[in-house]
Amino acid sequence: MATEFEKQFVNDIKRAHVHVAWVGDESSDVHVVIWPTWSGLSDFEKSFAEEVVSWGHTATAVDLYGVGNNPTELQDKADTMMALVAEKGPLTALQSDICQEIAESHPNKKLVHVGFCLGGRLAIEAGLHIPSSKGAASFHGLMNFYRPESSEDANREAKFIIFNGYQDPMVDVAAADQARADLDDMGLDWQFVDFGQTKHSFMLPSANAPQDGHAFSAAASARGRNALRFFLSELAS
């Protein structure tokens, strides 16, 4: 009998990932996998994939929930996210299956994960738990990602960069400190970048609820993009 997780996220789910190819003589050997916010695949992730490709790479924006399944109301988004991340095993298996499908479509490429909010957490988890991953970048991601059972189980092939708003109410100082300590204890190559005077959702132009701790920041967005571009070029070398 199928589990509730399988019914909601696996069985009979038709996904339409958006693959974006480099138009030119030759792209880099990096393929960027873009994990969406709790809203699911949207124009934001698609346009970000196009920007990443303009830097010389290839990219896939992940259709996380499947065609026609994106939640629209706040409570539905929260409930869907909580169901998705409720257990480590099913979540990791789903991410692994999605990444395997992407890898088969883009052979001989290094998979590097980039994500926003929920997707930021998923990017870190993909980097930690999927051996084919070579890097992960999280933008205003959640720090309650599943840790490996031991340091030996962590994917040491991946490098990590985490972009965080210092005023993000969803990532308090204790959570950020614990994430840094855990990544360091695993012996991983990591960077953690705090943006001052910056709240949650700082990459999303539609975010405009500073009273709730969510607000777009043009400065942090630009700085994050520049740092990500250098990070990807480092992995491609």
What is the ordering of alpha helices and beta strands? HEEHEHHEHEEHEEEH
CATH level 1 name: Alpha Beta
What percentage of the residues does DSSP assign to strands (E)?
15-25%
Provide a count of the helices: 7
Largest sheet: 7 strands, mixed
Protein traits:
237 residues; alpha/beta; Rossmann fold; 7-stranded mixed β-sheet; 7 helices; 19% strand
Topology:
Layout (H helix, E strand, L loop, with lengths): L3 H6 L8 E3 L9 E6 L7 H12 L3 E4 L12 H11 L3 H18 L4 E7 L1 H12 L3 E7 L19 E7 L7 H13 L3 E7 L12 E2 L4 E2 L2 H19 L1
Parallel strand pairs: 2-3, 2-4, 4-5, 5-6, 6-7
Antiparallel strand pairs: 1-3, 8-9
Describe what this molecule looks like in 3D.
InterPro entries: AB_hydrolase_fold, Dienelactn_hydro, Dienelactone_hydrolase-like. This is Dienelactone hydrolase family protein. Residues 31-215 form the Dienelactone hydrolase domain. Keywords: Hydrolase. It holds the Pfam family DLH. With 237 residues, this protein is an alpha/beta fold. The chain has one domain (22-236): Rossmann fold (3-Layer(aba) Sandwich). Helix content is 38%, strand content 19%. It is built from 7 helices and 9 strands. The protein has helices at residues 4-9, 43-54, 74-84, 88-105, 118-129, 173-185, 218-236, and strands at 18-20, 30-35, 58-61, 110-116, 133-139, 159-165, 189-195, 208-209, 214-215. The strands form 2 sheets. It has a 7-stranded mixed β-sheet with strand order 1-3-2-4-5-6-7, sandwiched between helices. It has a two-stranded antiparallel sheet with strand order 8-9. Helix 6 links the parallel strand 6 and strand 7. The longest helix is centred in the last third of the chain and has 19 residues, at 218-236. The mean pLDDT is 96.
